[in-house]
Amino acid sequence: DLTIADKALLVKVDQKTKDLLDAHIKKKKSKLKLPENDSSLDERSKKEDQQVLKEINAMINANKDLFTKTTDDPDSTANQLADKALKRITGQKVEGETQDSNVNFGG
Questions:
Q1: At a CB cut-off of 8 Å and minimum separation 6, what does 90 contact?
Q2: N or C: which end of the chain has fewer CB within 10 A?
Q3: In whole angstroms, what separates CA 62 from the centre of its chain?
């Protein structure tokens, strides 16, 4: 559960990405010689996920000023930058930029 500028960050996985993730898990279990129904890999993955979440939260907190609106004036430079940064992170189109220049975590 990540939030940026008081908005929940939602990551959607398309079918192609889900298939890649499933294949990765199967390969990882095979490499560790674990049966497919063995949940010990899931526990390891959860620990790795927790570490990654800590690192993501640290990055968000270190750059919180990019996502904080400073005044009620929507035309202020700080607010415009915060809005653009939030749109890029959430994969939304930023006016005046091509889609290739936007970050898209959804695949």
A1: 4, 7, 9, 10
A2: N
A3: 16
60-87 tens-digit pLDDT: 777 777 666 666 666 677 777 777 777 7
- Structure tokens given for 78: 């700080």
Is the CB of residue 5 less than 8 Å from the CB of residue 84?
Answer: no
Instruction: Count Cβ atoms below 10 Å from residue 95 Cβ, excluding itself.
Output: 7
**64-85 exposure pattern, b = at least 16 Cβ within 10 A, e = fewer:** eebbebeeeeeeeeebeebbbb
Model confidence at 107, pLDDT cuts 50, 70, 90, reads very low
pTM of this prediction? 0.43
If phi > 0 it is left, if psi is from -120 to 50 it is alpha, else beta; for residue 34 that is beta
